[in-house]
C-alpha cells in the first residue's frame, strides 16, 4: 500500500511519497513519481488506485493551469485545495475517485501550507499529514520529532527517520522514496532515497 | 518452574468496537524461581463501522437566560486514527445564528457550503439575516431533498430569534426537526451527552454559568467516547456579544 506524507517547515513544505508501482504481487517499477507539480509553487502527492491517481492529479494540474491562463494570476494553495475537494465531492456519489491527496504550496503573503484531502473529500489544513499503511509510523515519528519552523536540514532529517521506520517496520515496505520541496523559489524535486535501483538493461 | 494456563475470553464486540485495536498484556511472575515473563498478545479485529462514526464528533447546544451556548469537540479522525486536533465543526451563519454539523466530515463541509450559499442569497433578496426558525426549516428541506441518498450529518442549530429569544434544535440526517427548550445533542458521544446534560442543566442560567455547565457536560461526555475529544470549542452568544473559547481536556 502506498505511503505519502508531508509537513510544513519554516518557509517551505515537504512532500514525500514512495515510488513503487505495484500490481498484486508484482512490482512494475520502483521509480514511479507520485508527487505532481501543479504549478510553479504547488505540489500534490497522491496515493490510492493507480489509474484514478494518475488521471485525477493530471486533471487538477490542467485545471490549475487553465485558471492561470484565463485570469492571468495563479490560484492560491487554499483555492487549489478547495477546488480539488470540490471535484472529489462532486464525484463522490457518482463515480468516486479512490485517491488520497496531500497538497503542499507556498504563497507569497501566507507562506507554506499543507492540506490533507481524504478520498471522500474531507479537507483540512494541517502541519503534518500521512496516508497509507506507512502513516501509522509516519504520524507517530512526526508527532515525536516535529516542531514548528524547522529548517530544511532538520525536516529532511525527520523525513529520513520516517523512511527508516517505514522500511524496518512495514512488512511490504516500499524500497524507494521521492522527496519534493516547495518554497519561495518554487516547487522542485529535492532528493530520492533509493535502496533498490532498477537494473539498466542495454537495448540489444 | 510453574506453568500457568491462562484462558483468554474473546473481548465482547462492544468493547472492541470502541477501542479499535486492543492489546492484551499478560505478565506472570513465578515466586519460586523469581522469573518474570511478559506475554503480549495483539488482537486485530475489523469492525463494521457506521458511516456516522467514520470521523467522530460531539455537539451540544444549551439555552440560558437570553443567551445560548453551542459546543463541539475538536477531533478529526479516520476511524481509529486521529488526523487533526483543531477541526472546526461549528460554523457561524450570522452573528446570532450558529450551526454545528456532526457526522461525516466531507458531508458536513459540503452541507455548510450549500447553506452559506443559500443564506447569502436570502440576505441579498430579503436584505436581512435569516431567523433561526426559518434557517432550521431550510436545513430540514435541504436534507430531505436527499432522502434516498442522504448527507450523513446531524446538524445542531442554535440562534437568537425575535426579541433575542434563544432557539435551539437538532435534526437527523434526513431532516426530522427536534425542537427543545433546554438542550440538544448530536454526534458519536450523543448518548453520554444526553446523560450529562440532563443532570447538569438548569433553566435560566446566565452566560458565565451556562459556559461552565456546557463545558463540563461536553468534556465529561467525550471522555467516554474514543472517537471524539481532543479539546473543546465553545461559543456563548448573548444579544450583545459572541464569546469563543477553546477548552483543554484530556488529549486522547
UniProtKB/TrEMBL annotation, chain A:
Subcellular localization, as worded in the UniProt entry: Cytoplasm; Nucleus
Primary residence: cytoplasm
GO cellular component: cytoplasm; nucleus; proteasome complex
Keywords annotated in UniProt: Cytoplasm, Nucleus, Proteasome
PROSITE patterns the UniProt entry points to: PROTEASOME_BETA_2 (PS51476)
Record InterPro entries: Ntn_hydrolases_N (IPR029055), Proteasome_beta2 (IPR035206), Proteasome_sua/b (IPR001353), Proteasome_suB-type (IPR023333)
Family, per entry: Belongs to the peptidase T1B family.
Protein role: Component of the proteasome, a multicatalytic proteinase complex which is characterized by its ability to cleave peptides with Arg, Phe, Tyr, Leu, and Glu adjacent to the leaving group at neutral or slightly basic pH. The proteasome has an ATP-dependent proteolytic activity.
Subunit details: Component of the 20S core complex of the 26S proteasome. The 26S proteasome is composed of a core protease (CP), known as the 20S proteasome, capped at one or both ends by the 19S regulatory particle (RP/PA700). The 20S proteasome core is composed of 28 subunits that are arranged in four stacked rings, resulting in a barrel-shaped structure. The two end rings are each formed by seven alpha subunits, and the two central rings are each formed by seven beta subunits. The catalytic chamber with the active sites is on the inside of the barrel.
Protein name as annotated: Proteasome subunit beta
TrEMBL record, chain B:
Localization (cell): Cytoplasm; Nucleus
InterPro entries: Ntn_hydrolases_N, Proteasome_beta_3, Proteasome_bsu_CS, Proteasome_sua/b, Proteasome_suB-type
Gene Ontology cellular component list: cytoplasm; nucleus; proteasome complex
Keywords: Cytoplasm, Nucleus, Proteasome
Chief location of this protein within or outside the cell: cytoplasm
Quaternary structure and partners: Component of the proteasome complex.
Stated name of the protein: Proteasome subunit beta
